[in-house]
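FW: tagging you since you asked about this chain on Friday. Here's the raw sequence from the shared folder, copied in full. Didn't touch anything.
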Amino acid sequence: MAINHNPIWNLIRQDVKNFGVIKTLYDITFRVINRFLFFKVLRCMIIDSVDPHYLGSNNGYQFTFLGRDTLLAFTENKEYELSEEFVWRALKKGDECYGILDGPTLASYGWYSSKPTEIAFGPAKNGGEDLRLHFSSEYVYMYSGYTHDRYRGQRLHAIGMTRALEEYLGKGFKGLVSYVESNNYSSLKSVYRMGYKDFGKVYVLRIFGKHIIRSSKGCEKYQFRVKAH
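HL: got it, structure written out here
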C-alpha cells in the first residue's frame, strides 16, 4: 500500500490517466535521458488564423501591449516572474509584451519577437545554456507566456495569444511561430486546441561539450532553426 502514497508514483498514475501509457513512457524516458545528458526534441508550430472562440469577452479585463513604464513597475512584484534585467533586454531588442490586466493586476502576458531570440533549457551544468532561435522575418515568435495563479482556468494565455495574433496579422505578419518540447503534453494539448499546427521538429543534443542540432525538412519553409552561440 505504501507505493500508492509515493508522490512520484501518483504523478505517473495521473499522467497515464491523462495521456495514456505510451506518452507517459515517452515522457519518463526523456526525463531519464536528461539526467545524464542534454537532449531535447522540439515540436515546431505555427498559427496563422484567428479563432474567434479564443478572442474572449472583456469581462472587465484590459487587453493591450504593455509599455516600458508599466512593465518596469510590474518587475517590483516577484509573483509576475518579470525581472528588470529581462525586461530591459527584451525591450532593447524590440520585443513586445501583450498583457491582460485586471485593474492593477497583471493577469496574463506573453512576449513576442520578430528577431532571433535566445532560448534556454534547464541548468547550464546539464548543457542547457542559451541557444538562439532563428525564423523567417515574416513571422513573430511567441515566448515566455505567464498566467497569474488566481486567473488559471480561464484560458487567458490562449486568449491573449489569439488577440496578439490578430494584432500582428493586421500589421502584415503571416502568423506566430513557436515550439513546445515533445514530452510537454499539457502545453501541446493547449496550443493544438487554439489552432497551432506542426510544421517540423528540431533535435538538440549536447555531448562532450558541443551541441549537435538537426532540423526536419518542414522547418525550411519558415527558416526555423536553433543555433548554438
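FW: The longest helix spans residues 156-170.
HL: agreed, and Confidence is low (pLDDT under 50) at residues 123-128.
FW: great, closing this out.
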